[in-house]
Description:
Blueprint: E1 5-17, E2 25-34, E3 37-43, H1 44-50, E4 51-58, E5 63-66, E6 68-70, H2 78-83, H3 95-106, H4 111-127, E7 130-134, H5 142-152, E8 155-158, E9 163-164, E10 178-179, H6 181-186, E11 202-204, E12 206-210, H7 216-229, E13 233-237, H8 241-251, H9 255-261, E14 269-273, H10 279-288, E15 291-294, H11 296-301, H12 304-307, H13 312-317, E16 321-324, H14 337-347, H15 354-360, H16 363-368, E17 386-389, H17 402-410, E18 415-420, E19 423-427, E20 430-431, H18 436-453
Parallel strand pairs: 1-4, 1-5, 6-7, 7-8, 8-11, 9-10, 12-13, 13-14, 14-15, 15-16
Antiparallel strand pairs: 1-2, 2-3, 5-17, 17-18, 18-19, 19-20
Helix pairs in contact: 4-5, 4-18, 9-10
The chain binds zinc ion.
Zinc ion binds at residues 72, 74, 136, 236, 272, 327.
Amino acid sequence: MAKKTACDLLIRNAHILTCDKKNTAYTDGAIAIRGRDIVAVGPDKAIAAKYEAARSIDARGGLVHPGFIDMHYHLTFHMVGKMIAEADFGGEDPGPWVADQYTRLINAVEDEEEYASSLLLGLDMLKSGVTSVMDPGSAFEPENLARASDALGFRVSVADPWLLDEKGPQISDIRRATVGRKAAIKGLGKQLWRNKDKDSRVRAHISVYGMGNDSDELRLAAKACADRAKVPFNMHQSQSVDDAEFDDRRFGRHPLVHFEDIGLLGKNCVFVHMNVLRPDELDPVVDSGLSIVWSPTNSWYYGARQTVKTPFPSLHKRGVNICIGLDVSKAASFGDQIYTAYLLARDQNEYISPTDLLRMYTINGAKALMMDKTLGSLEAGKRADIVIRNNDTPEAWPRHNAVRHQLLLAKSRTVDTVLVDGEVLVKGGRLTRMDEGAVYETADQAARVMRKRAGLRG
Ligand SMILES: [Zn+2]
């Protein structure tokens, strides 16, 4: 008998969704891991015959898929979003009252609160199977996000803080935002040093705020900077009729048409929201090969579907790289994203399969991050960022349609083990690197400080 090849870890008896090009699945599969890399994926028998390892994880028939990649989350606002009080204004718009709380709480964030917020977010992410996250440049000090990543082990892509040089319809008075063209353009690319270390879990891209808050000059300078560094260029765009029409007025045409004309669009563009796209804006999106971050729970929360038909099912059919981002956890969490996207499509008599939605939340995110050579699918040569689910919940049974049951019904409840770079960060549903109670205590302390600074009672 041939000698077996040594590896560090075997995941066996797994229902594997690889999310590779052919969407290969193994109902009884195994993965061999050496160091931080996947060395083989295939049928359990074949892998077990070829590889031996000191450690193995028995997935007991549970679903195994790549770690989710959340392409839009404001780590700094994680606790802010959750601390906004809600009230019934008897039919009156609570918007201004909510916006006031937002501004006050954001302005109450200093280094320790930003770290605490990122730490709580990291815990939430990992326990939901999210292994990577992109921050849209709304961190005041990206190093606070890097510290949380170092503490818990998740991947994060950060950007230069708060680059904006005009005032859009929705932005509030953020004390520490860099407003002004010269300062904003000068601030571009200051975080890119992080990409020198290819193995670092903290990386950098280029973001401007978007949604009416920046000039053509700043946007083009940012895109050029991203092109030179071969990183994504990210911004918010056309979230609601409000900001889309604001752009219509200042450009004298629809924004995506304008962006195509000034040469802004390209494959490394990652535009977030894009709920409001008019017919003449669809071709520029498709032709440029840009990526869209669909934030299903955000679009639902803000009622986007009441004013426009959700464009994502048809853009998906036309081959646009659509990925998923939670934005801020207010009334929903990471486990709700695939479920909500599925229902939003259904609600408009469209259909996107749970498997396609899983691709949006994994490999499509990796493509938008320009890291699909290393992340986003379970294939030999890629990093071992892996989610192992259990079947210990009634929603998982019977095991027919396991993919739909797990992703839509069980959501994040069945996330059992999570690996990043082959390192087990969540085991049996519990964090391995840090005591979860310590994370909650840090968050609670920070919340008290923020409420006090913001002048909010209690
Ligand atoms: Zn956002």
